[in-house]
Fold these 3 entries.
Entry 1:
Amino acid sequence: MTKVTSVKSSDSVFNPKKFIENERTRSALKVEEINCFLESNPDDQKITHELLEQIITDPILKCDSYYYDKEKNQEREITARKIKRLSLYMENDIKLMQKNQVKREKIDIIKNLQLNPKSKFLVNKDLNIFDKRLSLIGMIDPQLSTRVGVHLGLFGNCIKGNGTDSQIRYWLQERGAIFLKQVYGCFAMTELGHGSNVAALETTATYDLDSDTFQINTPSLTATKWWIGGAAHSATHAVVYARLIVKEKDYGVKTFIVPLRDNSNFQLLPGIIVGDIGKKMGRDGIDNGWIQFKNVLIPREYLLSRFVKVIPNQESTDVSVKIQPQLDQVSGYSALLSGRVNMVMDSFRFGSKFVTIATRYAVGRQQFVQVNEVGRIETQSSKKKEQHGHNIANVSNNKETQLIDYSLHQYRVLPQLAIVYLISPAAHDLMSSYYNTLNELYEISSPKSDKQQADTTDKNAFSTVSSKLKNLFISSASLKATNTWLISNLIDELRQCCGGHGYSQYNAFGKGYNDWVVQCTWEGDNNILSLTSAKSILKKFVDSATKGKFDEGLDSDDFDYLDPDFIRKVYTHDISATLEDTDDNTNESLETYIEIWKIALIQLLIHIGKTIQKTKDFDQTTILLVTVSKFHAIHYMLKTFYTKLKHDEISHITDQHSKDSLWNIFKLFSVYFINKYSGQFQQFKILKPSQISSLIQPKLVKLLKEIRTDCIKLTDAFELPDAVLNSPIGYFDGDIYHNYFNTVTANNPPESDDPGKPPYHNVLTSMLSRDYEYDSRLGGSLNKDILEKLGK
Amino acid sequence: MTKVTSVKSSDSVFNPKKFIENERTRSALKVEEINCFLESNPDDQKITHELLEQIITDPILKCDSYYYDKEKNQEREITARKIKRLSLYMENDIKLMQKNQVKREKIDIIKNLQLNPKSKFLVNKDLNIFDKRLSLIGMIDPQLSTRVGVHLGLFGNCIKGNGTDSQIRYWLQERGAIFLKQVYGCFAMTELGHGSNVAALETTATYDLDSDTFQINTPSLTATKWWIGGAAHSATHAVVYARLIVKEKDYGVKTFIVPLRDNSNFQLLPGIIVGDIGKKMGRDGIDNGWIQFKNVLIPREYLLSRFVKVIPNQESTDVSVKIQPQLDQVSGYSALLSGRVNMVMDSFRFGSKFVTIATRYAVGRQQFVQVNEVGRIETQSSKKKEQHGHNIANVSNNKETQLIDYSLHQYRVLPQLAIVYLISPAAHDLMSSYYNTLNELYEISSPKSDKQQADTTDKNAFSTVSSKLKNLFISSASLKATNTWLISNLIDELRQCCGGHGYSQYNAFGKGYNDWVVQCTWEGDNNILSLTSAKSILKKFVDSATKGKFDEGLDSDDFDYLDPDFIRKVYTHDISATLEDTDDNTNESLETYIEIWKIALIQLLIHIGKTIQKTKDFDQTTILLVTVSKFHAIHYMLKTFYTKLKHDEISHITDQHSKDSLWNIFKLFSVYFINKYSGQFQQFKILKPSQISSLIQPKLVKLLKEIRTDCIKLTDAFELPDAVLNSPIGYFDGDIYHNYFNTVTANNPPESDDPGKPPYHNVLTSMLSRDYEYDSRLGGSLNKDILEKLGK
């Protein structure tokens, strides 16, 4: 096929390259330093790049544009092949982490971990490298990381959270689930009639004393386990959420290990009925399925019993049930907690991809101010020109403006860049809180022996961890919901910023959006999660405001705005919102960009409290409570960003210009959202209407213009290789049109025998050449003659 | 496969049915009357239902759930088959419209129209039935209506708008394009480097005096015609937008007919290079392609020359170019105008589908208030229960609430219902303005003979039509942009309202969204269109405010808020915004719901005017101008709805309860958007902060509760058959779980030999059973022995 392409670098097709090069020359930003800031620290930065390189150069794991043309069945199989490949990386990652354990002994590390009962008991942080690998894969091929994540994250964490030490070691280590060996698990929680509303699940696990077994059953259609990732094709085992029924008493929903398939040949086991959920909006590489159980028997020991035990007496004539309720409930959710924390990290990573693409396109693409159709009619000069023509030489002199130089386009793109920047420190911070808190929990709740567990728990220590965990639930719920929403919106908005080309599957937005948006629904619907976290914040607020209850040690990080003194100051107007308009970036002036959100949160909570008092209708305040959760997340992000950037030793930013640029990002984030929520800011008297016009909006425009000058380097600083972007209009070299054209033509080669002639051309030719009704379809002859004959 | 299903109607799986039945019994709404209101009038209502029934019962045209599992190549072919089928309906629809023309003469109507030069010259309204058919198909299978729409709408209207009468008759009627015969057209406007920015297009059409031909060329890669629907597979001809170059002078972009393929065998013609754009975010049934021209020769007569003529002199030694600029520019866009007007209608139809699904699901689905994970820990009573268990008999007594009874869920669903209701009268109104204005334009611009055209045009009449057309451009741009955005958001929001089930492809949201969102980009990017219309509104505002210019006859419909008197009143605060809080629905009280938007528009325009004066920076006000366009659209919708419902003879609503319910919808729409834009309403002092809290938000909650009682009947009133919805969670009978389960299982039957065993199971078994490194992969023997040997 002949391509009209360009070899002259003066040709307009090379403008995008030149524009992007210019930006790089012009901006003094230190890309490496900023990348380190975004990746948390130099060590993590190094690992990120090593892992990314490994992923994109691996012939099985890498994704390219051909990926966009696969259909469901192909995606399913390709994803399985990638999982197989990942299992080898997984072994290697564990070996790297464990190599000091075995020193110079010549043993197979994995074999030892699996088969030697004295080997190390693996904990979360032993999987750090692989977890990071998965998290990075999530940016490139999210269905792959999810499909593995269901096994390792949901299935694995559910066992870790609910199993005894022996159960954990058996299923994960000895049987090999953690190494992707022998056991491949799925997480059978949700049912057709019940989403993440665990308490209402219908599946039953009925204890039978005689055989000492549980019988698992699906009592109704709505009890069908539904949406279960891995159930349709790949799971050999499931953790099943089912009602524990012992002697006709219902003890609520507990977790059970139920084998599904023979792992040697993948045949379903008796009593297990499985089906494929089929085509989804996205992530078709995951084999979501449904499961029904018909009198499936499992041994009593398959009940995960860290916190619940079914104990037949010595003579096997009676049975008792022992439940440790507090821990039960805290830990029961830890499987989901991990997912939420990871989704905040996903938000940073996934968002960085699209903001890189759209920013490069905005710099490279040129466009007139769209000539107003009506406007044109009225413009005398243009009319004249059209009428009389002009010399060809002038035609190419059309001065088209780069998209990024339009205020409106800056407003559409750059705040999205700020959002991604602000998520990063929050995501890293949340992740480390999660690991630290879970480790504390495991340590104090780890039973010395199975029988003594409840007694040996240190109550004070537990109470502290429990509070930390509660706070983590609140912030992770709020951040998961707020950020997955923000990224949905980001992908959509930035796709529109790339015009028609954003609609091409090869430019990543379409599949990206379809894969992404399920994050707003699964593992806690965003609205429900927002309510959950906001209700807890409201409760804390009431405790603080009315009883002065505030835990200086535990709450001063995420909930500093709930300090009783601060609440009082806001209430009595001792403090009022402002944004310091200086460029010197002193701590005091920068803190005003955070404090305004603290005030907003308190004013919003006061309003909600009053509304409930007045109307006695809690339900009606839920619309506002969703906003509380969003404000909490915004405040959290501003605060963690500020704390990090303020301290050179953790920000790793030494270059002053780079630091100033990051402070601008910080300010833009705050100001953008103040403007977006200006309804609330005025309604609750945080700002006056005149301040929106004279302070917020001019500052917004000013910040956009400033950030615009560094925008290419700010996206370069994500350091995403082209193979991660997988979007030719966003590649590093900025050669937008060649890259895009070459991708489209490579993926859609012309028909080899007859280019441009579709395989189904006969459908079209027979339509276009069809005859007239009377001439052929109703008779095949001159109609009048026949009709006259018939009429006689 | 065994299904756990239910035959007892007391089973919980039947709750959704019962809930939905109850709503129907309880509400006194007159569904038929409201449907008539939505369909404009009884005649149109009847036609809509007849056409819909024909579409969903036609074995080729109907869509079912299998449709969701097709991949690109299948969709392409299926869509072509449907077009072939549609061509027969098209003939029939024209025959129905023309049968009075031929009376009792026994002739083939189509043959006569095509081949008899004296036959009727077909105009837009002769295609009314088929256009409506296509519009309805757009709700069921949007890629089909678009693929035909490119030919009939874009290709056809471009010829109608730019061709002489002879050219129109030849291409559309004699050659048969309008009957889907012989000619299948595409619309080659956009280029790789240039979107709808027509003036910058690069393709050239250079006149050669010797041969009296044009030579069409693609001078650069960015000039490649790109995104051209129909180019990849189906078009035999293109209208090509290219720069008219005569004697080295560039006369700007004009339109040319260029043959692409031999219509008998679909081989590409020489000089035509065509490629497939490939996979898109949605609408893969359309064969979008790219085209490059290499010295393609076409006769001079293939220039569409209603308003531009290239005239060689008698001796063929010189050539002159004659351009009628004003008409040229007005008409040039009429091809796009039709698309925009149709997209407003699409917004109504497409939106009605998803709001029906989500409302039924919201009524049928039950859910606890999601138990707050943290909250649960603190609830003593629930803890007790868990600890001690409770009798099984009580388990099924869980009182789960219907989703629709949560305030937050009402807030998420019901305003979307109001949006769809408000679009309907606006869409019908815009459509008839379009037809009327275009007819006027054709009548006055229709040349008596080609040579005299410019002289015989009645200048006054033209000026009036031209002004009407300008107004139509403004309102259609604003309504297209605003409503296609609203519907994108509606689909996304309502998908989330259906939780995980909304993510299943079989429930219509995924494909619906992917197909829909391109409407925000094509035929005028929404941001650009919004700016275009807002700039014109700003200009009108300045003319009215500073010079008292206001055309009572032309502007008092869409632009009544620009009346100089009204502007003055707002400016001097002689008038202030309020919402009458009475339930008597007098005209006066209802009008306050419109007037508040008129005031908002003026205040916003005043602010923008002042900002430009102060900053001299027009570009920076573009962010606010987008809001002007949105407010204009909201005002237009409120006004047309009000005007229609106020008059019984055009509303066709006689039942008082139904009318009141519709007035509530009207109020909800206004109040919902006031609350959504409360930032602007406070900033520009249309409302005080206290009014948002005491007036707007309580009214919003009150209206939601009132509309909730009729919500099922309000969606029934769209009268969409299940086959149109194609979403089992939204079917009429409300049997959500059976319908959904049956659809999923029908589309994904178990593997016939070994259920639940994937075709690629060997990938998984080989992973799960893999050996240890030293045992097999690195040697196949005890590693220590070998290593010792090697170490010696």
Note: The first helix of chain A runs from residue 15 to 26.
Entry 2:
Amino acid sequence: MSRVRVQHFTVSLDGFATGEGLSFEQPFGHAGERLHQWMMATRWWHELTGQPGGAGGIDDTFVRQFAHGIGAEIMGARKFGPPGWQDDPDWKGWWGPNPPFHTPVFVLTHRPRAPLEMEGGTTFHFIDAPPAGALEAARAVAGGQDIRLGGGPTMLREFLAAGLVDDMHVVLVPILLGRGVRLWDGLEGLEKDYAIEMVSSPGGVTHLTFSRAGASR
Amino acid sequence: MSRVRVQHFTVSLDGFATGEGLSFEQPFGHAGERLHQWMMATRWWHELTGQPGGAGGIDDTFVRQFAHGIGAEIMGARKFGPPGWQDDPDWKGWWGPNPPFHTPVFVLTHRPRAPLEMEGGTTFHFIDAPPAGALEAARAVAGGQDIRLGGGPTMLREFLAAGLVDDMHVVLVPILLGRGVRLWDGLEGLEKDYAIEMVSSPGGVTHLTFSRAGASR
């Protein structure tokens, strides 16, 4: 059964998944890299970025789920590029010629463009669709494997509100960003649909897993 | 050195410390008892309320810090009673004739009244003062011991914003209340002043401790 999964989606203690003032120089705005330092410390990240070293352990174990069993990703427009990328026909995403997805990736945007085939198996498809429609498109090409919801917070909230998320891994970082885009707004009672576990890691973050019995279809 | 402490202050995953619709019947509004079930499961709570049983372990260890070394409490008006208690000259708090504080307690209110001496060493003092002034009043009677900030979220936020909190224990419960009063609003960068630890408990909550080097005076 194909499941819809969210993986190592990171929020501050006050619930912000991204800061204010997103730009090419600051993809997460005033948050900078503070939300993701825990991830950059893992051995998985070091391997992905061609650096030696990095830490094993629970944080590394969680991030290594990233690609397992995933057949396609869906991401919001604000993840694909800085504000205004839609006006730049040459923008191909943040990730260079060989993005780390290696599957079809559906970018939700009100201004669709032609698909973009990258090295390594990643193809970006640009679609203007509500959550259910995007999921249908992703499943059609995922070969029965799971769908990753890649964020940002706005699209995730929409999928959660629509009841379309089966498994969600959220990482809580003990910083207070104060401003930006919140993940948790408008989701009263979300816990009723999930078994939830919390586990703190020696790396200084807390991992939350939301697991729903049975997949969303 | 006398420290200013916050103890087992509980918030939902979306940061709410109390729900909407506070009343005599529902002191935490639509949140009901869901924020505090973890605490009611401890042996400490069972002892306090005259019930047998209850669980030991990390949750119990944390709540047992409640009275240790505390010389006075400061609480917000909305903790002392349901909306409108100021109009009821006979209202003496939620806690019966022998409240669990056993120290002077300063209730912050714009409508002060005469002090209320209860059994067991608790005296309620009603004062109209900003955070620093309330702290001064509490310290004057605390015999050199620590001051507990009893909440709710509004008064806590004010003390945090004023830089007057030395130690804070916050308990995170994995539910989404969606509405109510938030603890974390307007506290960007709070983490800079504290060493922060997070530890999840088998009881299903996560304990956060904020510790400042050196007391606030």
Note: Chain A has one domain: 4-83+99-211.
Entry 3:
Amino acid sequence: MKDVHATLASSLESFRAELFDFLRIPSVSARSEHDEDTRKAGAWVVERMRTAGLTAELLETDGHPVALGEWRGAGPDAPTLLIYGHYDVQPAEPLELWTSPPFEPEVRDGRIYARGAADDKGQLFLHLAALHILLGTRGSLPVNVVVLAEGEEEVGSPNLLPFVERWQERLAADAVVISDSAMFAEGLPSLLFSLRGLAYAEIRVQGARSDLHSGAYGGAVPNPAMALARILATLHDETGRITLPGFYDDVVAWDEETRAGVAALPFDEEAFREGTGAPGLSGEAGFGTLERLWVRPTCEVNGLLSGYTGQGAKTVLPAQAMAKVSFRLVPDQDPARVIAQLRSHVAQVAPTGVTVEVVELHGGRPWRARPGGVFFEAARSALEEAFGVPPVLTGEGGSIPIVTEFERILGAGAILLGFALPGANMHAPDEWFPDNHLERGIETLLAFYSRLDASFPASSAPAGPAGSSGTDANR
Amino acid sequence: MKDVHATLASSLESFRAELFDFLRIPSVSARSEHDEDTRKAGAWVVERMRTAGLTAELLETDGHPVALGEWRGAGPDAPTLLIYGHYDVQPAEPLELWTSPPFEPEVRDGRIYARGAADDKGQLFLHLAALHILLGTRGSLPVNVVVLAEGEEEVGSPNLLPFVERWQERLAADAVVISDSAMFAEGLPSLLFSLRGLAYAEIRVQGARSDLHSGAYGGAVPNPAMALARILATLHDETGRITLPGFYDDVVAWDEETRAGVAALPFDEEAFREGTGAPGLSGEAGFGTLERLWVRPTCEVNGLLSGYTGQGAKTVLPAQAMAKVSFRLVPDQDPARVIAQLRSHVAQVAPTGVTVEVVELHGGRPWRARPGGVFFEAARSALEEAFGVPPVLTGEGGSIPIVTEFERILGAGAILLGFALPGANMHAPDEWFPDNHLERGIETLLAFYSRLDASFPASSAPAGPAGSSGTDANR
């Protein structure tokens, strides 16, 4: 490893300068006036992939193109690693809240400030730099590598799934590494062990044909807003547990290691509460805040609308009432099954005199990492080597639909390996990435490939059936 | 009575022609382009009052003027009757839905079609015509009469209360007669026995400082929309009874005559339900639909708002949720007391982790007629004489704030004596008034004054303390 570390040390300044070039491109995918900039950033990535030693091209989609780089020198029998990232960034507005201009990167107090520094240009660049060093120094990698950098992550990746389906064979991989998240705390490297899924529906209650006078009709004609409130109030019991029959049947218990790990995390509950501004925290009885956020399913009302909502008093008996209701799911809950449970529960508890409809709006499956696989364990020990402490396993309450899609379509287990820090302002002014994580992140990846070297020595790559070798590494 | 009936018979054609003149004036108080028309209608009323034998003038307010007519020939010791009506009308739009133009009255199938035919020009005119006949034929009335016709009823009477307070002494009366409502059914004359009051509030629930990501925070940070639903669901028990402690303490039981009368009304519940379009009717157990509408208090949600209410799915954990909640009140409930009960109930049931505020928005007291008084009984037997059947007593689920204000400020009991028929389209296209009720209505009023004649014979008017005679008649 001496050679690669020496190269890293000597290249760090130029790497930083290159990253700054990348950050200077205002590749705001949401703004059509930046379409050319966005494409330019994609082309920049392709060029940087080539410099690193990959073959690379810009592949068109119905939106911004995908920068795809490949190195297949490990041979058809070696495992393949897919690295996913994105070169587009969030809009920078409100500009007046930035200390320095968003597209003029600068280092202050050990932080690189720029739009995209953390999300995700800075983290994507770590991978390109690590590959550059390894291919430049050694000329080879222990695994085949495909790098997919899309340009539409900040607008919901509308063309990524079709892209992955179209290029399914070319993207076939044994593991996917994504560096687009944050560590739990400074000095505490982290690996994500879960993402929650989502089942999102709208409950629509209809009473009278049209709004009525609440004096002339109130008391005898059913009130759909009141009916809706009564329905929503049945979704949790007094302990905060969700009441849908069968809802918890598919919830897989978490292993002791994970639960103990979560319990041991240095989490300041009062600081978390203060950060939200809520008068208090609450949730399912018997679980701590991090468990409620990461390993337990939820049921939330995301929106309510009925009748008169302007200023003052209007004596209307509404004809309709609507609630957006969503569930965050954990393995192995299935969004379609949860919507069906909601539908049957609502039919059961709906008051008489109104019609109630449950409309499914959106769904996504939950995801859980599978520690123990070669790639996951390589990432774990690489983080320990680079940061000097073993990584913690953390959860994520939100959903990243593409992760489960990668697993579903490509059959590749995902590893979410984030290097940003909490409070990185990923979608806010003054986005930053820790300057020393440029070196530390590349070191981690070098160590990661070094671990894979040990697992898949080039000379002894098993000559199993084509495409099957390494298959068990991270499934 | 022969003389007056002969006059009515011979004048009917010219009365109808006069009413048509009145209906031709587009006195749409809500539209400033009709300000001049509205004033013109007020002036028309003043002129018609004078022709009838009253002294009359147009009194200014901050909005449209009040047409005030007076006949004080019964002397200071005789009782005084205040007749309230309005000369303004609702906007006529949508014009294309009118069979004949709204301000070109015409008779079709025994109905006078025009904007204002029922609400309220046609009914106000009945009073002017009856006074015209009596003063023209007899030269006197058994009571002093004040006629107050305002021009802002259709815009919420913003200047009426200040007007009544300013002219309190001039308007002092022993009874107020209002003809601005409908009979229960054709051939079934009606007297109103009650109006419900109103207590209107907004419940505001606050969780986090601002909307949060429902994935990143959901499950641990309280959801104000869910909290609001749980609060609203506690406002009724399973029998539809309102749960606020003390809520029913001030509800006065209705007398057997009223309840029996309501039960005997020819009410088609299925036709009522079909009219609303609601899949079913529901309400407080143990009471029929008319009782639920007229003699029982209610609690309604008038509006709901929280979080994301647009199309599709947005994974937001709302910071706030709001419900407009109102109560219809019955004698002797007090709006302020009910709001206080709501406030204390909400504080009791509010989930932890959120702050809840109850903001009072509007209130009005319930009203109940006091049958047995001279004026009320005169109206009752006059209706029987004119229509051939005794009037039914009906309730009204809505509120007419000015009724209780008249009683409060002037000390005059109100009599709501309506001659329109159900389905009169008062605020809709093709408004109509039954043509034969022009004659029947005037007949009723002639009989009404004839009954008062018997109660207050001019020669024997009691010479009690000034302003006190007749005082007990209808309090």
Note: The longest strand of chain B covers residues 197-206.
